[in-house]
């Protein structure tokens, strides 16, 4: 009888200890699961806090900055956020520094741009379509340019390339090559494409042209490339950087001859509406452009609507 009771007691105690341990383990797992969920929730909620509830912009008045300011109005979850305007160079520097440390950052972005060739980035989805859809970059020239510089006019009319072409020039410049050398190299290495632009066009000795552009990496690249092609065809070329509005105004008023930097329909839409009757639109020189909010791919966020209101 004694042995039987002891054995029974041992089984009972053993079973109790097992159940107790299992219970503790289950509670601990649940605790860890809850903690993980809380940490994840906090991480999602605190993205705004970690970036100071601000989007790093470029120059004040730029189309992508205006669109971002509109986004802050349109999205209820962006109340209290602001656009921190600076310059395209300062934006790129801030982006690079954040990526080096794997820190969160949100910037105003556009494609084509060398940062997409250098870094793993993504656009935040824009359900309200504040930034519009795909954009094109157009060539605009002053009226009567075809009469005063017919060969340059034809080359500008034929100018057309891809986002990948543009990004290769931008990346070469970013990595230390002068923009003049980067443009010359691209023209030399893409002879077949350039020949399409100058096909049937004679040397334009004596023609002069002033190309104006906004100092975005994309427009620095395109303006220098087409400028190099024009020079090789005998055109005397002057390149002049200007602010957005003045760029449009100078071509419309005939103070400058042309620009290959018109982002439409969204980015420069207001300026196009203001000056379209005073310009000659030569059509797209690049398709597939885009603007929006851009973040590093390692950030656990996919949509503008995932952001939280400022607290």
Automatic annotation (TrEMBL):
Domain ABC-type glycine betaine transport system substrate-binding per the UniProt entry, residue ranges: 41-189, 208-308
Organism from which the protein derives: Bacillus chungangensis
Keywords: Cell membrane, Membrane, Signal, Transport
Name of the featured protein: Glycine betaine/proline transport system substrate-binding protein
Signal peptide positions on this chain: 1-21
KW Transport (keyword) present: yes
Transmembrane annotation, as ranges: none
Domain of life: Bacteria
Presence of the UniProt keyword Membrane in the record: yes
Compartments where located: Cell membrane
């Amino acid at each position: 009888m004694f042995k039987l009771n002891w054995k029974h007691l041992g089984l009972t105690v053993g079973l109790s200890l097992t159940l107790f341990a299992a219970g503790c383990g289950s509670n601990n797992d649940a605790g860890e699961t809850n903690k993980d969920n809380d940490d994840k929730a906090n991480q999602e909620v605190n993205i705004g806090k970690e970036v100071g509830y601000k989007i790093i912009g470029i120059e004040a008045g730029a189309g992508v900055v205006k669109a971002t300011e509109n986004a802050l109005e349109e999205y209820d979850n962006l109340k209290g956020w602001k656009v921190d305007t600076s310059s395209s160079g300062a934006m790129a520097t801030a982006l690079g520094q954040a990526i080096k440390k794997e820190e969160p950052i949100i910037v105003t972005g556009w494609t084509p741009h060398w940062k997409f060739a250098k870094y793993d980035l993504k656009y935040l989805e824009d359900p309200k379509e504040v930034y519009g859809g795909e954009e094109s970059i157009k060539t605009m020239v002053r009226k009567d340019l075809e009469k005063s510089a017919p060969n340059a006019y034809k080359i500008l009319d034929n100018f057309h390339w891809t986002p990948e072409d543009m990004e290769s020039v931008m990346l070469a410049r970013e990595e230390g090559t002068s923009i003049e050398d980067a443009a010359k190299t691209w023209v030399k290495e893409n002879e077949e494409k350039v020949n399409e632009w100058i096909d049937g066009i004679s040397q334009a000795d004596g023609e002069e042209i002033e190309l104006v552009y906004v100092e975005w990496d994309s427009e620095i690249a395109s303006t220098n490339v087409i400028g190099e092609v024009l020079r090789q065809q005998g055109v005397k070329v002057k390149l002049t950087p200007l602010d957005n509005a003045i760029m449009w105004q100078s071509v419309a008023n005939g103070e400058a001859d042309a620009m290959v930097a018109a982002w439409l329909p969204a980015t420069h839409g207001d300026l196009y509406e203001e000056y379209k009757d005073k310009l000659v639109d030569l059509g797209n020189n690049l398709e597939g452009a885009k603007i929006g909010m851009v973040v590093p791919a390692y950030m656990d966020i996919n949509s503008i609507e995932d952001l939280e209101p400022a607290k």
